[in-house]
Write a structure and sequence with these properties.
Two copies of one chain form a homodimer.
Chain A: H1 12-23, E1 29-36, E2 46-47, H2 51-59, H3 65-73, H4 81-87, E3 93-96, E4 102-103, E5 110-115, H5 116-121, H6 123-147, E6 151-154, H7 163-176, E7 180-181, H8 186-190, H9 200-205, H10 209-219, E8 225-227, H11 233-249, E9 256-259, H12 264-277, E10 284-287, H13 293-302, E11 308-311, H14 313-316, E12 326-333, E13 336-337, E14 352-358, E15 364-371, E16 379-380, E17 383-387, E18 390-391, H15 398-411, E19 427-430, H16 432-448
Parallel strand pairs in A: 6-7, 6-11, 8-9, 9-10, 10-11, 15-19
Antiparallel strand pairs in A: 1-5, 1-12, 2-4, 3-5, 3-17, 12-13, 14-15, 14-16, 17-18
Helix pairs in contact in A: 2-6, 3-4, 6-7, 6-13, 7-15, 10-11, 11-12
Amino acid sequence: MNPVRTPLLTDLYQLTMVQAYLDAGMTATAVFELFVRKLPPGRNFFVAAGLETVLRTLEDLRFDRDDLEWIRGCGLFRPGFADDLAELRFTGDVHAIPEGTVFFPNEPILRVTAPMPEAQLVESRLVNLVHYQVLAASKAARAVLAAGGKRLIDFGFRRAHGAEAGLLAARASWIAGFDGTATAAAAPLYGIPVFGTMAHSFVQAHASEAAAFEHFAEAFPANAVLLIDTYDTVAAARQVATLAPRLAARGIGIRGVRLDSGDLDALSREVRRVLDEAGLDRTTIFASGNLDEYRVRALVAAGAPIDAFGIGTSLTTSADAPCLDAVYKLQEYAGVARRKRSAGKATWPGRKQVFRMVDRDGGWDHDVVTIEHDIQPGTPLLDLVMADGRRLRPPEPLAASRRRARDQLAALPARLRNLEDAAEPYGVEIAPALAALAQEVDRMTDAAVPPG
Amino acid sequence: MNPVRTPLLTDLYQLTMVQAYLDAGMTATAVFELFVRKLPPGRNFFVAAGLETVLRTLEDLRFDRDDLEWIRGCGLFRPGFADDLAELRFTGDVHAIPEGTVFFPNEPILRVTAPMPEAQLVESRLVNLVHYQVLAASKAARAVLAAGGKRLIDFGFRRAHGAEAGLLAARASWIAGFDGTATAAAAPLYGIPVFGTMAHSFVQAHASEAAAFEHFAEAFPANAVLLIDTYDTVAAARQVATLAPRLAARGIGIRGVRLDSGDLDALSREVRRVLDEAGLDRTTIFASGNLDEYRVRALVAAGAPIDAFGIGTSLTTSADAPCLDAVYKLQEYAGVARRKRSAGKATWPGRKQVFRMVDRDGGWDHDVVTIEHDIQPGTPLLDLVMADGRRLRPPEPLAASRRRARDQLAALPARLRNLEDAAEPYGVEIAPALAALAQEVDRMTDAAVPPG
């Protein structure tokens, strides 16, 4: 069983429902849409991410021998269900908002149109993939907006929630505008630039800090970034200043130093002065240590002479908002629009499109959510990307998603660029055609359900 | 490249340090310990989890052809480094606190004793595995304490941070005392009981709610749990009451109903009355929908007639505390104890043991952290579990870890069992022998580092 690919990465009820659908012949076309119900506090927008991983999951959907053996032996399903699953592939269509696009609550970012059993089965894993990547990309975009052009590196693998989260955070943050990641596997898997310095243990393992610095610089003559806060940051900067001419005589440069604790504003200024006085004005200062977008903003605003920031745990766990109200809801079955009306969880029915409306100056004014064929004057955000289970285009290079995110963040209205709630949130209007469809669906449901 | 097993699931700096260590012949024995620096707000203890996944990672440590190809081609390492890595295996020792054990801040739960390159390389993935499983087990234990014996099921795969988080949360919450999970793959992978009901989409896809209920009950004649909040919860309960005798005549029982929205206390009482009046007193009520340990506690305290709770996103993301200050720090190298003294991040040096001291009644009084051979009267928590890269015992069955957690939670002092900060936190004392070692290490370091 492949623990990343198995279709058993789903809630059991998806499998029980699939059996029930197959038994009743309920294999007509279902339409599900994935959207986020609301913004977490302090957030003004989301960044779409994860589509490529969704398409790959759908392309690869198949039950392998181990999966089927469990289905046969677990005692939960009828005989023969495993044989049905052995044949199951994803044969449907996918519409989606491209990765790197800014979007807002209640806007569908993914639509799956497929025979009911297929569309139902994939719900859990699709939400799992998209929820986390949107979460990480949206968190990363805040740091990008706060950093004012300074370099940002993802340092958060170790406290990400498992291996896949670490990898997907590297991917999502790179799309959102980070300059790279420390997670080595993200380079071969996604082609993302990787960066690394040294750890405190390296310094501690040596007889002295100076010996550790010299040794590391010799090992990486062009690239060494020395960690200088293990004992006393400013004293360590002086050691770097003393060491540098000796190394330079041997053709070895010191690319940078890293501060990982203490008052980063004050320390960066002292370290900069020590380095500059030693003629090391090209040696950069890298800062890390419990950073998030708020601390980056404060350090940038204070004018701290820091060239790059490593952001770790706060990024990969999206620590201030570790989850979104992301859902995948049935919008239509067998040609009839549907909606859920549970208390506080009602949804808009039908196949939908999102239009982004611009003002006379080309700025984003508001979005309109409407039914698919109710064409509005703005730019439609959802595209058909997979038909009959096949991609319409090759995978989008990550760099293209990253360029899109850059352009989208540049176009984001000024009031949404802060780290705090905008006084006036971005407008997402429900078009009259969609409201009318919802009313019609309710009338039909009320006719079918006896009054409470 | 195996995205779950590759040793490139690490920070790049581990690889650069490994190269530097190998080049300098710094392959003497290093001792690293993994611990959590402090409790998040509202938390009074941690639950150990993840050891088995750590041991498997260490046993399986090897660079495959794809990994080595990247090392060779990435331009970051010296020629020949990939050949060194091709030979690398984990040959060290591991001491650990067993899974399911309650522990506290600054207590090492894992110690790795190995040649420096091996011990360093695995840091990122070991922290990644242990941090998240401790996080999830500790969060789950709170719900177990709050539920007063009612059944708890993990419903959180879809908003867990990726696939591995979803699987490890199922594992960790089961250890902590949950009764099972909805994540299907957790059954074949870990042997955890799986549970499932139905989704709103199933109801919506049918012409009527009654038709959906009947269809699902027919498909799962002994096990059907019907979701009754899609339109009107109490009306749906009445439909269940109407349907039940007809189904019973055909030998089909309705095992339970699920509420997923609205005022769960009030609705559960109304639904219970409707079911009881129809003679369905054995049909259970299952509740879900944005639940966490606080809401479970409130519902239990109110006496809501709910038999089982599904806890989702709040569990798998540990939403109120999505990260811990978990670190893996060098404590000794080449026979000499080491410590880090960075501002606010100083650590206790040397190989350590934790002793749990009990009072005259056998209750937990406090813990003592000391150097390895400073035997104290209490129970030592760390055991040798791997020597020279080989396990000393077969993998512990998950059920044994779960029994240990049950016993540990039963022994937990009453003041630590609440969901809020205890007025008096559990005591973790540093033994004089350890304090003396720290002073000695500082004297040696001060002698080696010129004053700032």
